[in-house]
Recover the amino acids of this structure.
């Protein structure tokens, strides 16, 4: 929590609500650039504008509540394993980014291997076997049986 | 006579080989999902949504419905054996179910849970069968202004009964409405919030949002937790040991009956559903019991009532969805999405225009409940073994299935990035205690709400007084305003009593 000596001023709700209030203002601004109203009635900017107003209003309520009661926060407090989590997050972003370039087979294999070896701390042998088998099984089921057109990437020449 | 004809149509639809297979697959997957902690019916249904593109609509809904009520059966297993709820509606079963297991009565707890779920689920379907056509007839009499108010009321109730911070839930609902407007406006064909990205021109696909916020976020949340030791109580899972004795039945029949009715009616209410039904049933049984001191120490009533309530609530939840097109919780919102994927918006006309869909779903729920009791009692040993599947295999596979599901919605690799980012956002939301359920519900309902709102205002040339002049609409509007301002009264009341304020 953020505080002056002897006094708490803000908490995590303050920042999250402020972020969402700013987002709401941005939505309202973009909605206004669309047409809010036409002779027949509400137009395409009307509904998102209402949504932005509602988000902004409730966000301000939370913001002021967090300032008035900085000791009362509603966050989920529990011990976290940051390294494992970061490996998962990094792996899934990398998978999404390199999926088309590497192709399904290579991207999936490396993704599962990174999780198995890096995050779950399995042995090399176990990680390689599980990654290989899972990738092959998913490829067979989805590519061959269900005709899902996965990109083949660097292995395109083999198929 | 009409009823018999319709029921016959339902039998014909549900007993087709394909739909029987989907029913079996749905309840089987649902049971597995219920058994496995960390993967709930919402996440599973979001994974299956993209697969339903290729399926017939009736089969798709039968499959997804099976996952939903199947999960209620499976959730009690880990609650009783591990004191870890398989899914949210089985939280309260942990209290007395696990205590029974510690005293060597795990078999009786598992058995009464399965039988109670079967009885309640079947009676719940009977309730659905009679309540839905009656409510449909009423719904045909209301117009678009009343629909607007009903949908806003549904969203408001869901946020208020979410159990967490009400302000945060309302914020998430507003955010869901905003996200639902991304893409091309169906009335003016104007692109909104696409920023020139072609992939966003059709908006954010519901399966992608759901897979990110529920599927990947749930896995990240489980990954991020430090795992404490969990002890699986060994129990004999032979059939004889799972059959409750006469004493168990005598103590459980009342809770099962009460839980069935409480669960069904709470399931109908937006924001109600299986979780609240199970807690309400537990509270009722504890109050009614001649030995309330036994609760928390292995009272069988504390298992029978809640497990019955959560199953009948799943049937009740289908009533507003199928008759009014209003989902009462996040899972129903995803099932509504499945209807919309196939170009059908459920509502009062679905029973009239697509009777085979409605009656097929109802009859399949009877079949599903029967399959579940057949599966759960003898195969419980197999389901317990699933708890031993290591996280090394389970977690990455679930994430992989989410990615594959995201890819199959549009064969667009960009969707993988969207689902990954949404997963991270969903995880952050969980850590900051923002409930994703109101967001998903508002996202699904938002486009329908916008269309009916604009239609209502176009009828009057933009005059909003239509919402005040029509009686039903006026009553609903007053109720919504009262709900929205009720926290102010709560604050004033608590301040007066010197109690802490928590909204």
């Amino acid at each position: 929590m953020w505080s002056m000596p002897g006094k708490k001023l803000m908490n995590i709700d303050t920042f999250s609500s402020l972020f969402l209030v700013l987002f709401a203002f941005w939505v309202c601004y973009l909605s206004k650039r669309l047409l809010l109203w036409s002779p027949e009635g509400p137009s395409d900017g009307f509904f998102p504008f209402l949504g932005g107003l509602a988000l902004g209003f409730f966000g301000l309520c939370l913001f002021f509540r967090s300032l008035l009661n900085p000791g009362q926060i509603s966050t989920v407090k529990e011990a976290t394993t940051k390294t494992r989590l970061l490996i998962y997050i990094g792996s899934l972003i990398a998978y999404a980014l390199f999926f088309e370039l590497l192709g399904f087979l290579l991207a999936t294999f490396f993704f599962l291997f990174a999780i198995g070896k890096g995050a779950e701390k399995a042995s090399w042998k176990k990680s390689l076997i599980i990654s290989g088998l899972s990738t092959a099984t998913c490829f067979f089921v989805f590519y061959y049986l269900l005709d899902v057109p996965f990109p083949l990437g660097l292995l395109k020449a083999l198929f | 006579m009409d009823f018999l004809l319709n029921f016959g149509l339902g039998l014909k639809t549900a007993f087709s080989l394909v739909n029987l297979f989907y029913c079996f697959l749905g309840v089987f997957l649902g049971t597995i999902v219920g058994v496995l902690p960390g993967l709930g019916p919402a996440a599973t249904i979001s994974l299956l949504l993209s697969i339903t593109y290729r399926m017939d609509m009736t089969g798709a809904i039968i499959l997804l419905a099976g996952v939903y009520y199947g999960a209620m059966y499976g959730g009690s297993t880990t609650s009783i054996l591990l004191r870890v709820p398989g899914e949210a509606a089985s939280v309260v079963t942990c209290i007395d179910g696990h205590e029974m297991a510690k005293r060597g009565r795990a078999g009786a707890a598992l058995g009464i849970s399965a039988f109670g779920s079967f009885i309640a689920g079947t009676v719940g379907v009977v309730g659905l069968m009679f309540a839905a056509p009656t409510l449909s007839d009423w719904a045909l009499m209301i117009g678009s202004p009343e629909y607007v108010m009903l949908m806003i009321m549904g969203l408001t109730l869901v946020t208020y009964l979410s159990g967490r911070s009400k302000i945060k839930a309302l914020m998430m609902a507003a955010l869901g409405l905003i996200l639902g407007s991304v893409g091309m406006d169906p009335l003016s064909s104007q692109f909104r919030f696409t920023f020139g990205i072609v992939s966003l021109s059709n908006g954010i696909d519901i399966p992608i949002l759901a897979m990110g916020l529920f599927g990947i976020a749930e896995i990240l949340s489980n990954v991020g937790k430090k795992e404490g030791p969990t002890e699986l109580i060994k129990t004999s899972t032979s059939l004889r040991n799972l059959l409750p004795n006469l004493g168990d039945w005598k103590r459980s029949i009342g809770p099962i009956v009460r839980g069935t009715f409480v669960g069904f009616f709470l399931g109908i209410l937006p924001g109600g559903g299986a979780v609240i039904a199970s807690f309400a049933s537990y509270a009722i049984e504890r109050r009614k019991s001649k030995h309330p001191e036994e609760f928390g120490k292995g009272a069988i009533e504390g298992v029978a009532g809640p497990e019955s309530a959560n199953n009948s609530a799943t049937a009740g939840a289908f009533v507003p969805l199928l008759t009014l097109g209003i989902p009462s919780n996040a899972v129903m919102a995803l099932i509504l999405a499945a209807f919309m994927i196939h170009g059908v918006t459920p509502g009062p006309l679905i029973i009239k225009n697509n009777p085979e869909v409605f009656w097929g779903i109802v009859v399949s729920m009877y079949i599903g409940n029967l399959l579940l009791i057949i599966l759960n009692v003898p195969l419980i040993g197999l389901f317990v073994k699933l708890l031993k599947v290591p996280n090394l295999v389970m977690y990455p596979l679930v994430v992989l299935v989410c990615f594959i599901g995201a890819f199959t919605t549009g064969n667009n690799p960009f969707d993988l990035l969207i689902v990954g980012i949404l997963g991270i956002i969903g995880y952050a939301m969980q850590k900051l205690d923002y409930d994703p359920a109101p967001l998903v519900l508002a996202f699904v309902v938002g486009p329908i709400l916008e269309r009916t709102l604009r239609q209502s205002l176009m009828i009057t040339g933009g005059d909003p007084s239509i919402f005040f002049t029509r009686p039903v609409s006026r009553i609903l509007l007053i109720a919504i305003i009262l709900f929205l301002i009720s926290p102010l009264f709560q604050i004033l009341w608590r301040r007066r009593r010197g109690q802490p304020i928590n909204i």
